[in-house]
Amino acid sequence: MTGGSDCDFAGAYHVAHVFVIDAAELSGGYALDGLGRVDDVQALFAGEGADQNYNPITAAELRKNGNEHLYAKLYANNQEIPVKSIFDETDRCIYGYQTELGIVPNSISNAATAFLQGLYWNELTVKVSDGTLQLGIKKDEYVFYDWTCFDSFRLYYYGQDRNTGDANGNGEVEIGDVTSVLTLMATPEATGYNNKAADANGNGEIEIGDVTTILTIMAGN
């Protein structure tokens, strides 16, 4: 399932951009619970320290000092992550405002161009347990002249495979499976593991995203 607009924008006031999805939409009319991933959400957030033209005058200094606050969140049910900072793609962004850390978007059009470049992807894994998924972008704090921009929601449904994440094959999804995934990442030829289950996010690779997915499954059990 995909969705989004050309580029949704929200300024300093609270963000409440919400989608409510019946899981049956993903499965031809059958009400399903299980594991899903909100993927390919392009979103960025410019925090405190911008001027009235949204140029991040002191935001770069906050980033350098480790004091940057990422208030805008991508969420799905009870899972949430901060959306990417405008400074996360300074090595690839080509249009916007020049800071000492590199170029960052400072307008909707700059953000839209960055999205077209394939920048600012965000990913979140969620477990659906009641047939309904609520997802969106939110921000609870008021910060003068901050802003966020987002587009291109894509949702994948992985189903109810009870073996998903059980990388060590002991019949449970638990912290030992995280260790097993890390072992397979370091030594792909290692034996005694369930490699299919270790690929918990179903992207065809055993990588750090599978650890996040396993932790999500553990939290939902």
Note the topology.
Layout: E1 2-3, E2 8-10, E3 15-22, E4 34-46, H1 59-64, E5 73-76, E6 79-82, E7 84-85, E8 97-99, E9 102-104, H2 108-116, E10 121-128, E11 132-139, E12 147-151, E13 153-159, H3 175-186, H4 195-198, H5 208-220
Helix pairs in contact: 3-5
What distinguishing features does this structure have?
single chain, 221 residues, alpha+beta, 2 domains, seven-stranded mixed β-sheet, four-stranded antiparallel β-sheet, 5 helices
> Averaging pLDDT over every residue, what do you get?
76
In oligomeric terms, what are we looking at?
Answer: single chain
Structural class: alpha+beta
Q: Characterize the overall form.
A: elongated
What does this protein look like?
It is a single chain. This protein has 221 residues and is α+β, with helices and mostly antiparallel strands. The protein is 20% helix and 32% strand. It is built from five helices and 13 strands. The chain is elongated and about 50 Å long.
Task: Give a quick precis of the structure.
This protein is of the alpha+beta class and 221 residues long. It has five helices and 13 strands.
